[in-house]
Amino acid sequence: MSGLIGKKIGMTSIFDENGKNIPCTVIEAGPCVVTQVRTAEVDGYKALQLGFDDKSDKNASLAAQGHFKKAGTSVKRKVVEFQGFEGEHKLGEHITVDLFKEGEFVDVAGTSKGKGFQGVVKRHGFAGSERTHGQQSMLRAPGSVGAASDPSRVFKGMRMAGQTGNSKVKVQNLRVLKVVPEKNLLVVKGCVPGHTNAYVTIEK
Questions:
Q1: Which Gene3D superfamilies match (predicted)?
Q2: pTM for the whole structure
Q3: Tens of pLDDT along 125-184?
């Protein structure tokens, strides 16, 4: 899919032509530099490697510095490969937010906010136990997780308390509400995963 690397700026809302207030997310999308062109002859598959967001050479390895120098660009913080990219692109070429148009639909992937260790009510949406009949210690407990004598174990995949968030999430079919080329901004309807300034990938 053709796409770009971006950075989540934050959420806001805009009014459409009918006066309806629409929640939306502002993303700084690109400009991205083509840092490597994968070919079927050399690599066994076709892909375009894009780099985004400059960083200091001081903290980059010599191998990384050489890799980006070959593309004629500075060291990048974020590098992502896109397979099946539309059109022909050369090493060192800049791809901007003009790749997207208003009204089309995109998929946005990123890492969700980490919530730490959470119970079953927050993690899986359990209702909890009843609040009446004198019970007081099982309000948000998971309840039974399996039988005793048979099968004498807890099945894999049982929904229990544990680490929540901080995982890759893709939100599909978000409508592009506005493209601002002069500021490299993309405004999409709804929310996207991640905290403010988190890196995301936007795919057509």
A1: 3.30.160.810, Translation factors (2.40.30.10)
A2: 0.82
A3: 999 888 888 888 888 999 889 888 888 999 999 999 999 999 999 999 999 999 999 999
Shared domain for 104 and 180, answered yes or no, is yes
Residue at token pair 């200091």: 56
Sign of CA dihedral 74, 99, 102, 107: negative
- CA–CA distances in Å: residue 148 to residues 50, 144, 157: 54, 10, 18
Helix (H, G, I), strand (E, B) or coil at 79: strand
Which among 7, 87, 85 has a CA at the least distance from the CA of 52?
7
Mark whether 97 and 143 lie in a shared domain.
Answer: no
User: Based on the domain organization, do 138 and 38 belong to the same domain?
Assistant: no
Q: Contact, 46 vs 57, CB < 8 A? A: no
Tell me, yes or no, whether 141 and 197 share the same domain. Answer: no
The string of pLDDT tens digits covering residues 68-101 is 888 888 888 999 999 888 878 888 889 888 889 9
Look up the domain containing 188 and give its range: 3-114+168-203
In the chain, the amino acid numbered 68 is: F
* Strands across the sheet containing 76-83: 76-83, 47-54, 32-38, 94-95
Specify the length of the chain in residues.
204
Does one domain contain both 91 and 66?
Answer: yes
What's the structural domain count of the chain? 2
Helices (H), the chain: 40-43, 62-70, 120-124
Judge if 42 and 77 occupy the same domain.
Answer: yes
